């Protein structure tokens, strides 16, 4: 059986990111997809993804994508979708 430290090191060598970084990146990718679906509010998305507050979610999203979740959603208006 493998211990956490070994698996964590192996993951980082393979992906060039820590488990925590990977988790937070995936969480923000899910948030982006949920915003694109336009079925949930930003507040609901932040709760669903277990952020401590809407502000914490907005800050993380903006750090990753360079735009707030609200601005990202508004920017989709002329996108046409798939």
Automatic annotation (TrEMBL):
Pfam families: HTH_18. SUPFAM superfamilies: Homeodomain-like. GO terms for molecular function: DNA-binding transcription factor activity; sequence-specific DNA binding. The keyword DNA-binding applies. Residues 1-75 form the HTH araC/xylS-type domain. Keywords: DNA-binding, Transcription, Transcription regulation. InterPro entries: Homeodomain-like_sf, HTH_AraC, HTH_AraC-typ_CS, Tscrpt_reg_AraC-type_HTH. This is AraC family transcriptional regulator.
């Amino acid at each position: 059986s493998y211990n956490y430290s070994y698996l964590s090191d192996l993951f980082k060598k393979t992906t060039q990111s820590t488990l925590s970084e990977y988790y937070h990146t995936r969480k923000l990718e899910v948030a982006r997809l949920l915003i694109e679906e336009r079925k949930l509010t930003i507040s609901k998305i932040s709760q669903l993804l277990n952020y401590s507050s809407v502000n914490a979610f907005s800050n993380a999203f903006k750090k990753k994508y360079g735009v707030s979740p609200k601005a990202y959603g508004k920017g989709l208006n002329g996108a046409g979708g798939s």
